[in-house]
Amino acid sequence: MRSLPKFLTRYISVFAVVLFLCSALYAENAGVGTNEDFRGPVGLQMYSLRSISEKDGVESAVKLAAEMGFKYIEASRSFDLTIEEYQALLEKYGLKAGAKNWGVDMFQSEEKIRQVIHEARVLGIQYVGIAWFPHKRGAFSMADAQRAVELFNAAGKRLQKEGLTFVYHNHGYEFQPWEGGKEGETLFDYIIQNTDPKTVTFEMDVLWTIFPGADPAALLRKYPDRFALMHLKDLKKGVEGNLTGGTPVTNDVALGSGQANYPEILKAAQNAGVKFYFIEDESPVFRTQILESLRYLESVELK
């Protein structure tokens, strides 16, 4: 068998070295929970570790997040720490906040909005939002949706002046039928369509999109560029959902083992321009499931 010409052998050798270096650089910079197909970045919603914060202190929870390999987190309660002390802990363990949710009351007066702005600046985040809008449980109405739109637009306009972006995190109850919309549309469609895309964006919670019977990938394709953040959660197989916005935490399962079609959802999310993906696991076995979810994301093939 004839040997390859020397110049071709050298070319192949150089190409192999370059490919190896590129792969090593990708592995170093891509971060935990990613692969060449799913690019992330993947962070952890710190509410997942709330029991640790309550029992052993916030630092123990922050340390665990870092030990799991995360580089990003979505900030949660700081308990008895000031926001400055909380940020110092993140820096100590090499973590960076990508977003934080506050209570809706924090957006109803200028004084409280200034406090939100201060905390956001300390954390160095752009995405500022809420994860629950007050309503009669199980009966989110058009009046509720209209109030939400008014508050979101006002908050978004105010925060834009500070270089911040308002985010609303869906929670399942918003998927009541919209009588004035197109066939199959819900009050969540109404909220998206009536908020200013320049100042208001959304955080899709996958579990709280599936639970009320909606299709996460279809929503991402329908409203490209409206979802900046995503909560990666999965719903136990066999669980029937509803519009209450509530289900036992034991119905949270590791990604890829539940009802969510994550290969399709993640592909749609990347095409829609989602900026941060935060794992949120509220189950009693969060330690095990978070690691299982990371391994799943590191091997998932998008379709």
Using DSSP, what is the number of strands? 10
Helicity level: 40-55%
CATH homologous superfamily heading of the largest domain = Divalent-metal-dependent TIM barrel enzymes
Amino-to-carboxy terminus distance: 42 Å
The strands making up the biggest β-sheet line up spatially as 1-2-3-4-5-6-7-10
Q: Write down the overall geometry.
A: globular
The CATH architecture of the largest domain comes to Alpha-Beta Barrel
Class from secondary-structure proportions: alpha/beta
Q: Major beta sheet, specifics?
A: 8 strands, parallel, barrel
Backbone CA Rg: 21 Å
Tell me the CATH topology of the largest domain: TIM Barrel
Give the tally of structural domains.
2
Low-confidence stretches: 11-29
H/E series: HEHHEHEHEHEHEHHEEEHEH
Number of helices: 11
Report on the architecture of this protein.
The protein has 303 residues and is α/β, with parallel strands linked by helices. The chain has two domains: 1-30; 36-299, Alpha-Beta Barrel (TIM Barrel). It has eleven helices and ten strands. The chain has helices spanning 6-30, 50-56, 58-67, 83-92, 110-123, 142-160, 187-194, 207-210, 216-222, 262-272, 286-299, and strands at residues 42-45, 72-75, 96-102, 127-130, 165-169, 200-205, 227-232, 234-235, 252-253, 276-279. It has an eight-stranded parallel beta barrel. Strand 2 (72-75), helix 4 and strand 3 (96-102) form a beta-alpha-beta unit. The longest helix is centred in the N-terminal third of the chain and has 25 residues, at 6-30. The protein starts with 5 loop residues before the first helix and ends with a helix. 43% of the residues are buried.
